[in-house]
Amino acid sequence: MDMSQFFTTNDYFSIIPAVMLALFGCAILLFDFLIFPDPRQRKYLLIFVVLAEGFTGFSLFRQTSWLAAQNVPDLSGFGGSITVDGFSIFFNWLFLIAALIVAVVSYKYLENAGEHHGEYYALVLFAQSGMYFLAAGTDLITLYIGLELMALCFYILVGFLRSDKRSNEAALKYLILGAFSSGFLVYGFSILYGLCGSTKLADIAGAIAQRPAWDPMVFLALTTTSVGLLFKISAAPFHMWAPDAYEGAPTTITAYLSVASKAASIAFLLRIFLGPFASARETWEPLLTLIAVLTLTIGNLAALNQTNIKRLLAYSSVSHAGFMLLGLIAGNETGIKGIAVYIMVYTFMNLGALLVVVALRRANIIGEELDDMAGLVHKSPGYAFLMLIFLLSLAGIPPTAGFLGKFYIFESLIETRHYVLAAVASLYAAVAIYYYFKIVRSMFIREAPENEPALATTFPLRIALGVSLAATLVIGLYPQPFLEIAKSSLLVR
Amino acid sequence: MHPITTAHYLALSLALLLIGTVGVLTRRNVVIILMSIELILNAVNINLIAFSHMWQHATGQVFAIFVITDAVAEAAVGLGILIALFRNKETVQADEIDLLKW
Amino acid sequence: MDQHLLSIILLTPLAGLAVLLFLPGKNKDLIRIWANLVGFGGFLISLPLVSRFQAGKPGYQFEESVDWIPALGAHYHIGMDGISLLLIMLTTLMGSIAILCSWNAIQERVKEYYAMFLLLQVGMIGVFLSLDFFLFYVFWELVLVPMYFIIGVWGGPRKLYAAIKFFLYTLAGSVLMLLGILTLYFQHHQQFGFYTFEIAELMKLNLPLGLQQWVFWAFFIGFAIKVPMFPFHTWLPDAHVEAPTAGSVILAAVLLKMGTYGFLRFSLPLLPKASMDQKIVQILAILSIIGIIYGALVSLMQADWKKLIAYSSVSHLGFCTLGIFSMNPNGIAGSVLQQINHGISTGMLFLVIGIIYERRHTRAISEYGGLAHVMPKFAIIFAIAMLSSAGLPLLNGFVGEFTILQGAFEANPIWAAFAVTGVILGAAYLLWLYQRTMLGQVTNGKNLTLHDMSAREVALFVPLIAWSIWIGVYPKPYFDVLRQPVSEIVQRVRPGYYSGPVQNASIPTVPSNGGAR
Amino acid sequence: MLIDTVLFYIFAVMVLIGAILTITRRSAVHSAISLIVSLLGVAGLYLLQQAEFLFAVQIVLYIGGIMVLFLFVIMLVNLDQAAKERQFSGGWMVALIAIGAAGAGIGALLWRGFGSLHIPAPVLEGTPAGLGNTEQVADSLFSTYLLPFEIASILLLVAVVGSVIMAKKRI
Lengths: 493, 102, 517, 171
Hints:
The complex is a heterotetramer of chains A (493), B (102), C (517) and D (171). Chain B is mainly α. Chain B has a domain at 29-96: Helix Hairpins (Orthogonal Bundle). Chain B has helices spanning 6-26, 30-55, 59-89. Chain B is elongated, with a radius of gyration of 17 Å. Chain C has 517 residues and is mostly helical. Helices cover 72% and strands 3% of the residues of chain C. Chain D has two domains: 1-83, Up-down Bundle (Four Helix Bundle (Hemerythrin (Met), subunit A)); 131-171. The longest helix of chain D has 25 residues, at 52-76. Classes of the chains: A mainly alpha (493), B mainly alpha (102), C mainly alpha (517), D mainly alpha (171). Chains B and D meet through helix 1, helix 2 and helix 3 of B and helix 1, helix 2, helix 3, helix 5 and helix 6 of D.
């Protein structure tokens, strides 16, 4: 039998980054106990992560140049199960950046928390390979399995501090709610499959376009699928897991979860809503509008009286999800580009903010409460300044990058005449200042407690923070190249 | 008596989905919540098999295999986490897991 | 040199800030000297503007334009006309004075303090120079952060509350303003097929009245909070009272002018139809008059020296907005001049309070009395500041208020009648304040040992007093500088104004053909 | 045909009764046994729809694998205590709303008739004759769905690693 019909060059090209990730993940698992039995040697495992990301990045780069050389917009492999296009490559760069940064700063954190390293890095890579399929998948089964691969890795990573009750609890809650919602998601998928007898997104889009508005089957598929998708991006009222998972997880994983997992879920959401459900817009637009307003309201109001920084950032990330949904509601080119820009800047600023929280954890201080930040400017002025920039960016104050994301979202709402939504969103942008500046106030205005050690800084952490800061400022001050990258990711053509 | 159609299967799966949802939302015992999630996944599978039969191809069955695979994986990890938690805390009641606000 | 002069002025504080960050934090005097050098240098560099500026030349001068974000149509486009010239001079002068007056007052976290001031200076200068709406918005928001810290870190007992209130109010206003900007931006794309934030381009838009009104209200909220106009003024007393002296000075002298400047630069020229809409003009004029009288009445009742001046700002800024919405050359030119005057005189008043506060650490009026006996130099300077603020002829305040009243009378005599009561009340609360604190016998023993002003302190006032007398005695150069930009605004809003044979006395009777071509 | 109809109703009742018992029994062991009944009913439905391979998978994997896992955990973590305690959490409000909404949906569905669903009548291209169910599944699984099959292998690896990490006392 001729194997080439099963595994063509296109197939190879379409999955090579994910293969790299999975291979290195397995390699780490093997080397962890075969080659490096001595715990002190285990820091060399980081080299594998860096190598894995290097090869993945190289593969992504090859994909880009291949597409450019062939002058085609996309490349699909495995009989249409997966499609590599500007969209998937854009999102995969985000995952790569997040995973790499998270992995390199985790070493010291795990050391402090007294946890094992090997499986941790492997799971980070496996999760990233799941995200790869979320961003590139164009088949219900591929998307579903990719989603589950990512989610399963995160359930374990959230609970990675096994001796910490908060971590256990967070993992369990996240797993229960996650499995519950993906049950709904796959229920919706089963109906989508039933509607047209195919699992390819393109076929489904065609079948749905032929059905009348408010068709009960489409409606059922839409609502159940939406429950799953909205859960993953932590939109209200399906956001309950986010504050718990963010708080209980190791802070490095909180960063990974809030950035990469959210980006992957947004990519997934866009694939579904701009693919199969594109023609059912009049059904889902009012639904999503309601969800978006609710998300903004709950995210912003609940953040107001949080005292735990991770929890506060969790609610803030809920409200960011609301902003991104607004881009989808507007739905024009500006809106979709806005989501891409938003998630790009969000990646850097939220990573940065959480990395500062990572640095707060030292010898025997957990460092997640607002009080732990008190007077930070006296002890570690550099970190306080970094945090200030990231918070300003999260709040969307120019000239930081965060403003650009909000700018596009507002612009798309104005263009599509959603004036009321724009006004509501802009007022919540002002509300957000209040809680972000609670952290600023704690850092800059309150006095530091006596005899507290300075922050734990490691070389990788400083590099990672530097990258996040540079990106946040450069995207804010000279966004032109980044806007072009985001534009290359457009799904609507 | 009407012949059994795909719609009958759909109604049955909808009912099962509903029961599973109620179980997840109301029970305190985490093990039973996990079982309720299995019910939901079985509702999905009923749909898939019915549609697979209707379209006369095996795609739905393949999908169902993946759903079962996922159910296995989730159950294994979920029960693992449960054991870790039980070791630290000695409870399996969902609303006693309250260090973080539920 | 000329073609980059504005950039140099804009970047001087930023460069100074960059150097400041590398100075050793322990050496407070070095930091102070450097910050003062930068502040004074910024003023000196801006002086050539005065000689090189050509009054009466239409359009903008010293323009610079570079593509910034082509994907958005945002440009680094700066330039100035007569209005911005005056405000820039005010900014650089008041900036250097505010930095100088902090020498003794600020002893903690000195480096951060001066860093914030220099950053604030960049933002304020940028606001007055931007000819691109995106750039303008960036500078507009940039001002918030340093001001938050200046109030929040070095402020009084309720500094946290005042700082966040200031931030939230202004931000809420400015995001709504952003929506207005984006609406214009999008409409321009609709009509001309490309995205741009250039103000000159946006002025070509032809928008229906209804849309203009919406955008106008969006701008209004942003600018009115900043001014602050009557119902939006509540953040101002808190911010003023809690801010350190230099913060109050810069807040009153420059920051508030960003709002009135916004009306003149954006609301009126970009939205001419809405600006001439009867209802809108009447509402705004009435709010201004309420502001004038309310601010004055509340000032009368204050027991806190600084709060009194803060409320007087509400009253004075009411004159400025009333002048703008009179929509005639007198009103607008008077308004700009009054903005400068308010900057000078209220700046001086806050400096006066700062000086006495440094000595007694209280601002309660009842604690003082008969200070003139103890501090004669102080009494003279306070008297000049107070009289300039109250609008005594031969000092600056009179010229501004008089011109505004002329303009208001031309628009609607009733407005002028109400506004005049504000002038009277203004004289009342200021004179009464002076009487209670300076005249009579020294009632409080603690005041007997106060030492009079030092040379450095007097030096703060010399340029301000000189400037205020200059405007009061010979205001012609100012009106010359303002004539061209003001006539451009009036021409834009009321195209028939200059060609009409007989000018009607009040706006309501002018046929509303604004904007129609 | 009649026998199919009767069998469908028998299995459907098994599924539903089993499911209701699963979520209402106080004891987790009873719940587990009820769940097995429900899963057996589902397996029966697979048979009715000529999915013999799935039937086998359901019996072996689900009932043989997952349920054993559940029972094992129930034995491991002592649930005697739990059985005496309050059975339901405070989530009944949400549940009530969910039931109401879904019940209304099902009611509307039954009232308007199944025809309203517009389930498409497929154009039957003719089944690949001579292929048994298992062959069909295998054919599909290893050609069209090769990619998810490969991803599933990583998924299972992660599940193994994860459950080991979580359940072991010290690594």
